[in-house]
Amino acid sequence: MFSNIYRTHKSLIKFRKFPTFSLKIHTCSSTIEFSEDKKVSRNFNKYANFTPVLFFSSSVSSQNPNLDPNFVSSNEEEEEIQKDGYEGLNNPFDQTSSTPHFSDSESESQSESELENNDYSEVLDLFDVKNSKGDSFKEVKVEIRQPLVKEVCRLIQLRPSWNPKLERELRQLLRTLKPPEVCAVLRSQADVRIALSFFYWADRQWRYRHTHEVHYAMLEVLSKTKLCKDSKRVLRLMARRGIERRPEAYGYVMNSYSRGGKLRSAMRVLNMMQKAGCGPDLSICNTAIHVLVMANRLEKALRFLDRMQRVGIAPNVVSYNCLIKGYCDVYRVEDALQLIDEMCCMEPQCHPDKISYYTVMGFLCKGKRIKEVKQVLEKMGKDANLLPDQVTYNHFIHMLSKHGHADEALEFLHESQEKGFRIDKVGYSAVVHSFCQQGNLDKAKEIVNEMFSKGCIPDVVTYTAVVNGYCRIGKVDQAKKMLQNMYKHGCRPNTVSYTALLNGLCRIGNSSEAREMMMSEEDWWTPNAITYSVLMHGFRREGKLAEACRLVQEMVKKGFFPTPAEINLLIQSICRDKKASDAKIFLEDCLSNGCPVNAINFTTVIHGFCREGDLEAALSLLDDMYLSNRHPDVVTYTTMIDALAKRGRLEEATGLLNKMLHKGLVPTPVTYRTVIHRYCEKGKVDVLMKLLEKMLARQEFTTTYNQVIEKLCSFGNLDEAYKLLGKVLRTASRNDANTCIVLMESYLNKDEPLSAYKVACRMFDRNLIPDLSLCKKVGKRLRLKGKTKEAEKLLIRFVERGLLSPQLEND
Q1: How confident is the model at residue 746 (pLDDT cuts 50, 70, 90)?
Q2: Which residues lie within the region annotated Disordered (predicted)?
């Protein structure tokens, strides 16, 4: 066997293209190496399994710093990248392509209470901060407008029409790119998944290997998204390649986890750092504090800050700003202000900045505590020597306007002007919009006139806010005049302006005029998806459903698609007119045109057929859902079960319910109430009990048997209700007592006081106290029936528990 390998080695040496050749055989104990000078080193276990790995290199590759003859560290890694890469040449940058799946040593299936029980601050004690890794590398930024970068981005954007020629061009360009240029390509992609696809595709190319700068750039891009699993895979790939992982790499992964809402996994990144021997720095500690604050674990964040200082990591103003936000999130504004006061006495790097005060003032604005906002603003200048500037006033003008405090925002605007700051049209527009939202159009017009007087010409945003305000209060004629004034002042209305006007026309029931206005659109504005949706809902509210459906068809032809919620509203309106067949036709048209139709839309049409009594059409549409790959949900099944059972087709309803449970769907409380009502109505209690056992095995519902007994009582089936009383009395809760009272009242209404007496006795046996007034009625009925002994025993039960005095009993 080894002679064959050696002969293969000699034949491969003949290729002048690869002047250097080495063959490595990995065994359990050591390595056999065959080299060109025929020196053979043997020290192996002859019984060990081996896998030959060929490495080719050339003198050209050794001169390129981007290439490494040891590019593949193991067969396993290469196979993973090759297997999970983008196979084929038709579309290697397809977004649906998979990415490498590296095994995780930490399980992601730990308890949800882990973050509650562990604050991860103890991990800091395991690090040696003095021996932690140094500063991060200095990366060279490359502009996206660089020719090579632009050409690579252009080829990537051609991925829908990919072919081998384009891939060959991209492969040639890739070999000429330097690491900063590759980083620029990754950052320039609008879709992060495309950047990730290019990252893995380039990593598979011959004579190319990503440098550490590229890996860090990829992590930085992923840190701004929720693709946390992909971030962790890139980090593990760096570990396999032997690339130094600095704290910022782990910080990128932690940011990605926090954006994805996986706060527990974000904190476990600290454990990964500790196992890798990478010491934390201030940035990742600040990220950890932010994650704890986002998880509403403020006390743990405070302990983490204390542990940081103990291990020698000095916090800065960012650390304290995270805690200030945490205090505000739990409505502890006083503690936040106290922390700001303490920051003023700390080191210079911990002095509060404007963000510290902005955070508190923003929370006060949400709570409509405007006086306190002004006090904090004064405190910012006195204590921290931070004078309000134009940015400060603009910030609070927008914040107050956003939360509906138009008068206070206007006061800040005038105050800023008195101090010499110039407010631009953006600030004015925010105040105008706030007054329009309140319906105070006169004040909004005054501010617009004030803008003219101060040389701040209103723009299309300002005018559109006023137009929308007039339309909100039904003054569409005033809105039209405002559009004409826009033309007079040289400001052309845009799509948003006309959409606001069309919305006002539809609100007053004049959708036809809105339709004509949209048909006669000007050159400088074109209807968008929102414009069509506004008009469609206008026709729907007026009952002009045919026009609404035609508008949807026109909307689709223009390249705009209604949302599933909009489709559902229109289907509901059609079904209310008892035209479920028309709703089905409309639904099929939406499917054929590529509109986003979901299971809820199908369920609405099915419900329409059920209301009309056409169950065969409803069952047929249920089958069509499977053909169109829209799987029915529990609401769909519940609707059909209710309709079938209502018509007496209990066998089909039972089969459909079993099918729903077999598919793993969890019954809801509505499902329980529907099944209980219909089966009790038909008197099929035995079948109902078997179904309930299966449903309870899938999803627990505590008041199941209570509802069954109460429903049986409403239908007069008291004997079956009494048989189920034992299932209710097992828990002896307040709901059970109410159910027993319903059963006793039903027996009294049926003139069976002795049965009511038996129910009361069973309640006493389970330490449940029946209603005293009801039991007195039972006692009177028992005496009339000649059951004086039972009546006395019932009242004695109350006397024994101290709920009734003996004198009242004798009375």
Answers
A1: very high
A2: 61-117
Beta-bridge mates of residue 253: none
What are 302-306's contacts with CB under 8 Å, separation 24+? 303/119, 303/121, 304/119, 304/120, 304/121, 304/124, 306/121
CA pair distance 51, 749, nearest whole angstrom: 87
Tell whether the model's pLDDT for residue 594 goes beyond 70. yes
Handedness of CA 232, 237, 240, 244 (dihedral sign): negative
Residue where a domain terminates, one of 16, 32, 57: 57
DSSP string spanning 744-781? HHHHHHTT-HHHHHHHHHHHHHTT----HHHHHHHHHH
In a domain, 12, yes or no: yes
**Distance separating alpha carbons of residues 119 and 229, to the nearest angstrom:** 22
C-alpha–C-alpha distance, residues 260 and 602, integer Å? 31
- The string over 96-108, giving b where at least 16 C-beta atoms fall within 10 Å of a residue's C-beta and e elsewhere, is ebebbebeeeeee
User: Which pLDDT value is given to residue 689?
Assistant: 93
Assign 162 a pLDDT band (cuts: 50, 70, 90): low
Other CB atoms within a 10 A radius of the CB of residue 369 amount to 15
Task: At 351, list the tokens.
Answer: 């002095």
pLDDT tens digits for 262-302? 878 888 888 888 888 877 888 888 888 888 888 788 888 88
Q: Please state the domain count of the chain.
A: 2
* Listed residue (265, 220, 218) closest to 107, CA to CA: 265
* 286 falls within a domain: no
Q: What angle do CA 219, 222, 223 make, to 5 degrees?
A: 85
Instruction: Answer with the one of 42, 57, 72 that is the final residue of a domain.
Output: 57
Averaged confidence pLDDT in the chain: 78
Please report which confidence band the pLDDT of residue 679 belongs to, taking 50, 70 and 90 as the band edges: very high
Q: What are phi and psi of 15, to 5 degrees?
A: -75, 115
Query: Cα–Cα distance between 412 and 361 in angstroms, integer?
Result: 14
H/E/C letters for each residue in 383-409?
A: HCCCCCCHHHHHHHHHHHHHCCCHHHH
Query: Do the strands 31-34 and 51-57 form a parallel or antiparallel pair, or are they unpaired?
Result: unpaired
Residue 6: inside a domain, yes or no?
A: yes
In a domain, 24, yes or no: yes
Across-strand partners of 57? 20
Q: Return the C-alpha torsion angle 450, 456, 461, 462, nearest 10.
A: 0
CATH number of the domain to which 787 belongs: 1.25.40
Instruction: Write out the residue range of the structural domain in which residue 793 sits.
Output: 732-811
Q: DSSP string covering 592-647, please?
A: HTT----HHHHHHHHHHHHHHT-HHHHHHHHHHHHHTT----HHHHHHHHHHHHHT
3-class DSSP state of 57:
strand
Contact 480, 471 (CB under 8 A): no
Cα dihedral 442, 448, 453, 457 in deg (nearest 10): -170
- Reference 691, options 678, 702, 808; nearest CA is 678
Q: How far apart are CA 581 and CA 204, in angstroms?
A: 55
Is the pLDDT higher at 175 or at 44?
A: 175
Q: What pLDDT, on a 0 to 100 scale, did the predictor assign at position 641?
A: 95
- Counting residues of the chain whose pLDDT is more than 90, the rounded percentage is 22
